[in-house]
Amino acid sequence: MKANTIDIESIRNKNGFIIDMDGVIYHGNKILPGAKNFVDWLTREKKNFLFLTNASDKTPKELQEKLARLGIQVDKTVFYTSALATAMFLQNQKPKGSAFIIGEPGLINALYNVGYTMNNIDPDYVIVGGTSSYNYDTIEKAVNLVLKGAKLIGTNPDITGPIENGIAPATKALISPIEMATGKTAYFIGKPNPLMMRNALKKINVKREEAIIIGDRKDTDNIAGIDSEIDTVLVLSGISAKETINDFPYCPKYVLNGVIDIAPRD
């Protein structure tokens, strides 16, 4: 898809960039074309930017190290994950609570840092994030804890996520058996929840009119921007394809092949 020059200039003129990671900057452990040049341009132009990811498995430090391995050098403060957003939400809802967690170290660490304890007997919450450590015993335990009164929280509503060789089941797919078995509906914190978008704007310290969100999914990234009145860019380097753009009743403001189209090329 050929990028419109006027559109590209409009995007470049924004002061704040909220950027998804999977499908935008990399697939698995493979950097996407133009990603390094794009981030270098953001830094060189002194743009305010934040990597906003629905992934909850890694800490900001781990994400920083991952990008460094891919040749992109940034500070760990430019990462905001659904795990951090979930921890902030729970800290406000019930300070110093407890949780049964189905997830990876990024989620566990985020909750620990706000004073939450791990509890598999009578937790306040059952929290599900993206994980490969998922089995029947864990689901059974979560179901019975929810039936006993624990509130069910999902770090994000993604059904799938991009990997190097295709897609993998994500949080909403993993939490669905618990919802079905208990009759309880989970509350999801990550994109497109406006809470996460408001936190992102605060972190980059720009008004929504000055910001733009770049992502590869219409059902999370684009609708998050639309719901929060932030201009949106859909990139076709991840989940979405040109053929699927009209599968949803709403449209992003801009559609690009990838972030390769944004930064001027040397």
Molecular structure report:
It is a single chain. The protein is α/β, with parallel strands linked by helices and 266 residues long. It has two domains: 5-54 and 191-261, Rossmann fold, CATH 3.40.50; 83-188, Rossmann fold (3-Layer(aba) Sandwich), CATH 3.40.50. Helices cover 35% and strands 21% of the residues. It has nine helices and 15 strands. Strands 5-4-1-13-14-15 form a six-stranded parallel β-sheet. Strands 7-6-8-9-12 form a five-stranded parallel β-sheet, with helices on both faces. A two-stranded antiparallel sheet has the order 2-3. The mean pLDDT is 91.
Total separate domains: 2
CATH fold call of the largest domain = Rossmann fold
Strand content: 15-25%
Q: Which stretches of 5+ consecutive residues score pLDDT under 50?
A: none
**How far is it from the N-terminal to the C-terminal residue, by CA?**
21 Å
Instruction: Compute the average pLDDT.
Output: 91
Structure summarized in a few sentences:
By secondary structure, the chain is an alpha/beta fold. It is 35% helix and 21% strand.
